Amino acid sequence: MTGRRAVDLEVALWRAVAVYRALALAYAATLIAMNSGGYARPLGGWAVLAVMAAWTAWATFAFADPRRRGWPLLAADLAVAMGCLLATVWVESPEGIAAGRPTLPVSWVAAAVLSWAVRGGKRLGLTAAVALGVGDLLIHVLAGTAGGLGDRTFNGIVLLLMAGLVVGHVVKLARDAEARLARAVEMEAATRERERLARRIHDSVLQVLAMVKRRGGELGGEAAELGRLAGEQEAALRALIGVSPPAAETGHRGEQTDLRPLLTAHSAASVTVSTPATPVPLAAHAAHEIEAAVAAALDNVRRHGGDGVRAWVLVEDGDDEVTVSVRDDGPGIPEGRLERAAADGRLGVAQSIRGRVRDLGGTVAIVTAPGEGTEIEMTVPRAPDRRPRP
Question: Pfam families from the entry (predicted)?
Answer without folding.
Answer: DUF5931 (PF19354), HATPase_c (PF02518)
